[in-house]
From TrEMBL, chain A:
Record bears the keyword Cell membrane: no
Organism the protein comes from: Nonomuraea roseoviolacea subsp. carminata
Ranges annotated as spanning the membrane: 42-67, 79-99, 105-125, 132-152, 164-182
Signal peptide: 1-26
Keyword terms, alphabetized: Membrane, Signal, Transmembrane, Transmembrane helix
Protein name (Swiss-Prot/TrEMBL): ABC transporter
Automatic annotation (TrEMBL), chain B:
One Pfam family here: DUF7224
Source domain of life: Bacteria
Provenance organism: Nonomuraea roseoviolacea subsp. carminata
Stated name of the protein: DUF7224 domain-containing protein
Keyword set, alphabetical order: Membrane, Transmembrane, Transmembrane helix
Transmembrane segments: 38-63, 84-110, 122-141, 148-167, 196-214, 221-242
Domain DUF7224: 267-408
UniProt key word Transmembrane: yes
TrEMBL record, chain C:
GO molecular function: ATP binding
Domain of life according to the entry: Bacteria
InterPro entries linked: AAA+_ATPase (IPR003593), ABC_transporter-like_ATP-bd (IPR003439), ABC_transporter-like_CS (IPR017871), P-loop_NTPase (IPR027417)
Record's protein name: ABC-2 type transport system ATP-binding protein
Keyword Cell membrane: no
Classification via Gene3D superfamilies: P-loop containing nucleotide triphosphate hydrolases (3.40.50.300)
Amino acid sequence: MRTWLRVHRAAQVCVALALTAGLVAAAGDVLVPVPRPTLDDLAGVPVALVAPLVASSVLVRGALAGGGSLEAVAVRPVLAYRTGLVALTCALSLVMAVVETVPYGAAAARNLVGFTGLAALAALWRRDAATAAPAAYLVAAMLLGRPGAGSWWDWPVEPSPHPATWVVPAACLGLGLAAPALPRLMPRRHRR
Amino acid sequence: MPIRRWARSSAAVLALPVLTAYLFFVMSRSVDVLEDNWLSATVLVSSAAVLAAGPVCGAAGAWEGARLARGGVDGAAAVRSRAAILAWSLLPILVAALVAMLGGLALAGVAMAGVPGLPDPLVLAVALLVIVAWTLAGFAAGRHLHPLVGVPLLLVGTWLWLAYPAALETFWVRHLTGDNLGFCCETDAVYDQRALYAQAVVAVCLAGAAYLFWSRRRGARLAWAGIAGLPLLAMAVAFPLVRDMGPEAQVPRTSGLACGRSDGVEVCVWREREKQLGTTALIAVPAARRLATGTGQPAPRRVTEGPADGADSWRFAAPPGARPDDVLFGLATGLLPAEPPVCGPGWSGADAYGPLSAWLALTAGAGQDAVERRTGPESLGAARRVLGRPPAAQVRWFRHNLDALRRCDVSPSEVTLP
Amino acid sequence: MPISFQGCAFGHRRGSRVFTRLDLDVPAGRTALIGPNGCGKSTLLGLAASALRPGAGRVSYEGLDPFRRGNLARYRALVGWMPQGIRPLPGLTAREQVGYAGWLKGMSRADAWRRSLEALEAVELGPLADTRCSELSGGQLRRVGLAQTLVHDAEVVLLDEPTAGLDPEQREKFRGIVARIGERGHLIVATHDTADLARTYDSVVLLGRDRVRYAGPVAGLGALAGLGALAGIPGFAGEV
């Protein structure tokens, strides 16, 4: 297991998570101006909502790392290990958000969950570009989103950790983690 | 490989629609409030292009850099130089950025229809330089980082560097990024060239360091020295240029006036407003004479939108859409000090500003409604009370309160209604 | 029959087909899998290794279908697979990488560690056991791949182009390794190295586009050669 953790860059994931937590605690409430066509003035997005993208990328990179062909024929449940690594990291971020009561801590944890979920879904299509999906989604939400308006889709820029803003991120993560296991549970395709 | 096929496999194909959409979003909120000069349009386009293309091209560079690394370019004994190999991958991304920027210019061109002048090539060139620098930084990162990390890191990192300094109170940082806050300048100001030079220096050094990082070979100490030294050089050169600059990179404009004579007075407007010179003169010259009579000063020989000394030449502003009352109000308040004196707490001179403005505007011939809108009913009431006095008493009141605005030891007099 | 393919269909992408209906019983012992580029040799080995899942039909080893519920781990423990590309895992030494392969195959950490050195010695890489894989040459890395396949004592060993990139001396050594594997289990080798087929292998499977053109003793291939059926396969001049 130790080698599996090395191969899947668990140390780097921990460092990225710790750095993100530190950044959120130290400067999470700093607003970065974002141009939005729907508003008169430059609106700001707290750093805490953006920083988890990098931590999520490191996590996804770690989860998808490793000897592809070696793990493709492994006897051990490597898919479960990978799912566990991602789920555990997301859970850890939630715990940190609860323990470390800093502004936007919970929203940052939610974004980590959401970004990771989006990347996991994108990885089904193309692994090496998986993290481009949450990055693009974040940019779109920054441009078009209206924080506080209660819409379901612009959760990356929603500073409030209201339970409704968790629905999409949690669904993305759940689907993204479950989807690779689905082919084993579903009947075979391309039957002739 | 045919160029079309080469371009088709580039990340630029995906980057172009993203950055074009982003650029138009960034621009759409500002294009309606552009000033009537091409510099403001140029800065808006360059700023939007940098903010849109910097992060996207950086991310595309990280992708392409990783592609080159995976393709084994490092190990291949290529006939072409590393710079040539890099250039062929860089080119489609830069073309995408250029296309987006030209689209932005076209949009600005529509908004600026009828305004004489051309985009400022230097501002656009520096913007392109900044985009090139971040794209190269992406290539350098892509050589070592997997695209899963490199692409979002460059996208977010570059965006933070470009956007975040605008929120800092340390103003000099924002003048190094190339973002330019999307705005510069009003027609009576020009871009502070020091900021442009600083941005160019930072961009060149970043590009140089990124290229060295991408192309270095194992154990190349000279390359490492360059990678470490160039950022230091950038700071050493660029920081002194922008250290003392305020929140905006603009300085007063001193050239570009179009002048004519009216009733013995020379009238000058910015050349972008040359068409309105005759109409403006018909408003400004009689108003200047009324003001001279009312304040007991000699009539000016020149009224101008440009620099004025307040004695021989008086200043006014006639921006597009300004009504005669606006021009009169500008001319009248141009006689007041632009900034208050540096006095300690308890200075009450500022109380004189409203009544003096109202009295000057009414003397110049502005309508009471317009004056009340700008100065408030109290100031208008005080001014009307003074206007009921003999001319000599009005001049005394004006001079005393003008002193109150300029000096710390003079208190305003009769600036409130009893 | 060690590995059996029954009505297998497979495509890497929706709409593409490598096999539409493949029926093949791979002979026991040492088998060479030959055929022109792109005929599906690697895909066949991937299916046999259970790295790929057939769209239709079934693959089995002595009746054990890996994709039947509960069979996968048992099947994979019996089969070892060396794909064409062996990737060095960043930061791992040759011994760590081989040990990791053993651990993934269900061995305990201690067993995997112990066996990793034996596997490396079997491919004559013992002296380089503590060298990082990223520092090994291409040929050495292929031998690490072979050691990964041998580490867990698989009953069926699947090797995809194992001699590609090896010098003549290494190829000769590889033949010795093949002989040793053949003594204790089954071996299927996808190869373009058709010299000495008869000396190295017991049987041969000749794949054409989407079909098996020949499966049987190596000697039987000679008749096909006479019919010109081997034209286009590198290395064949009609002589086996």
